[in-house]
Design brief:
Structural class of chain A: mainly alpha
Number of helices of chain A: 21
Distance between the termini of chain B: 53 Å
Helix content of chain B: 55-70%
Low-confidence stretches of chain A: none
Oligomer: heterodimer
Number of strands of chain B: 0
Mean pLDDT of chain A: 86
Strand content of chain B: under 5%
Radius of gyration of chain B: 23 Å
Shape of chain A: globular
Number of helices of chain B: 5
Number of strands of chain A: 2
Number of domains of chain A: 1
Shape of chain B: flat
Strand order of the largest sheet of chain A: 1-2
Helix content of chain A: over 70%
Order of helices and strands of chain B: HHHHH
Structural class of chain B: mainly alpha
Radius of gyration of chain A: 23 Å
Mean pLDDT of chain B: 89
Distance between the termini of chain A: 74 Å
Largest interface: A-B, 65 and 71 residues
Number of domains of chain B: 2
Amino acid sequence: MGEFALGLAHIASLDTMLSILIGTVLGVLVGVMPGLGSVIGITMVLPFTLAMGQMPALAMMLGVYCGSVYGGSISAIVINTPGTPQAAATALDGFPMAQRGEADLAIGWATAASLVGGLFSVIVLMLAAPQLAAFALNFTAIETFALGCFALICIAGVSQGSMLKGLLAGALGLFIASVGLDHVTGDMRFTFGNWQMAAGIGLIPAVVGLFALSEVFIRASEYGRPKPQVVHRVGFRLPPLRDWRPRLGLLLKSCAIGSFVGALPGTGAATSSFISYAEARRSSPRRDNLGKGEPDGIVAAESANNAVTGSAMVPTLALGIPGDPVTAVMLGTLIIHGVTPGPRLFIETIDIVYAVLLILVLVNLLMFAVGALGAQLFTRVLRVPEPLLLTMVTIIALVGAYGVRGNALDLLIALGAGVLGFVLRKGGFPLAPLVIGMVLSQMIENALRQGLLLTRGNFWAFFERPIALTLFVITFLLLVWPLAAWALRRWQGRAGTGAAE
Amino acid sequence: MRLSLATLIGAGLALVSLFLIHHTFEPIYQRSYQAAGRGPVFFPRILLGIMLVLSLAVMVQGLRETALRIEPALALRMAAVVAVTAAYVLAITRAGFLISSIAFALILPPLLGYRRPLPILAVAAIYPLAVWYLFDRVVRILLPASPWFDRF
């Protein structure tokens, strides 16, 4: 109880409350703008958090994260263009409702479902993270190595695009983070005599380049095809209670789907909202109306994508393993502010975990209020010309890249990462494994080297430990599954052709 | 034969991996080979080996993808945007954050096809100044200053 009170004391300051408010409003704004998304939102506020205390910085990050996931639904409903990929499923029923003149009601459904999803995920975080952290306390370097490999393969496997490209992006991320000082021997690696490179390639400049700058380059390469946008009249109307009753089961099921999917590495809110939408399409009594403006679609998508926000923090806080680029940047920011995520966080500084939980609750409540009061205002942002907006994003993002270490080299790293991100995105490579690879690199390398010391250089001894062995087996299955599925399909195709002949 | 972008990326990464694997055998990395059981390039060498194999696989897989098609006008615009961003990044540490950001805010929107002078001028005049003032003066994250003026 003492720790909980301490957690409460952490957030009971004007600075933290203001950060929650500003972070949530900014998050919703960023979410509304098509194409910006949660990662760019967080990189935009990052420079501000450098000058803040630990709690206000954390509060602002969480506000932007949750707010941006919700904000995407507003533009999905109003202009049929999801502000974030997470809200793509919301557009399927939200926009037809707007076309019927019920944009206010659609936003009401989305806002309320987002609130329930968000609060549900806080409960999941509260219950699951301490259990996972307690379990992870038994891990030696060998289990940590196995877990790191599992997380990376998982992310590469389920990322958008082909698995091969995901794996290559993950390996590239691991390698990029190994440039600079070797933490064990103190040797310089791949610096080619440049002393500035001794500090290595920072995560934040890389993320700024990979996401913010590459977005500008992508837009530049696609201009000349303006799309006409119809902005429907917007407001906020909460659905009556009698309309909720038949949808309570769907709401809870979608929250559970979102929370489960969110806790898995590499999946995230976009995946969860589509899985949940597909489940609604399969099981809802009103499934025939889905896609034609049925609130079930909005409830399923929005509760699931917001249920990811808290549960994605479970592996991030309990194991120090982020599930997606957003939580990876948040993890980087936590470390900058002196919080080291991992099992020990739950023993040594549990008050910070309580503070995170309380911030998440407040952010979700505030998100509801902000959505209810400001929906009409937020849609005005859609009128800001995109070139001006991209210019502003580039300037603030580069301040973020420079501000973390005050190193001019970080600006060049951001630029290089921007070009790399552009080329990879155009080539169909997912960026999430690259970022997660960068985050996990040092952990995996240290665990491998420590593990080899423990086993006197015998790598096969890694497979003698049950938890590690289980993780290695799952990792191996994840790796060979696409190949096995392809071979099976080919074999079935041949068998079918043979039977026909 | 026209190749897909994935094939080109795979080939590029394969070449980089080969070069870096070769680089790990340079004498500078051999002197602390015994430290902590494994030397400094033990882990990167594994990664580069994996990258090489995967790059070759992506190269082959890319042969089945649609060939790279470049629209000259868009490619030119994209190259110009990259060049302007690169010039901006280099100028930040040479001409200072404020001056280079104002110039960048004046140049980028027209390059992206936006030609209304008043909003461009307003953004170029207000936004960089606001960002600079907020960070440099209020929250004291010192941004690069110009060599010509004392205050910015």
